[in-house]
Amino acid sequence: LCYIHIGKCGGATVNKAIEMSPRIAKTFDHVTVSHVARPVYKPRNRYLFVVRNPIDRAISAFNWRVRLVHQEARSDHRFPGEAGGLAKYG
Fold first, then answer.
1. How far apart are alpha carbons 57 and 52 in whole angstroms?
2. pLDDT of 28-49, one tens digit each?
């Protein structure tokens, strides 16, 4: 099974559920998780995607960045001007 973890779609929760599932363990020899890196498509693999309402996903991503940048002050500064924008619209 190849689980494609799309950001802000419940990935940590789904990961835990996969690890705890006796059905998954019985059905699949191993599970791989692809997050950020592009997965290698193999026709014989089975794939699991979890999707989420795009508006909810965008709000969740915004709130996550607010938390990282302002509440925990540990931004990786990936986005120029992000701190100012989040402060203005937070």
1. 6
2. 999 999 988 888 899 999 999 9
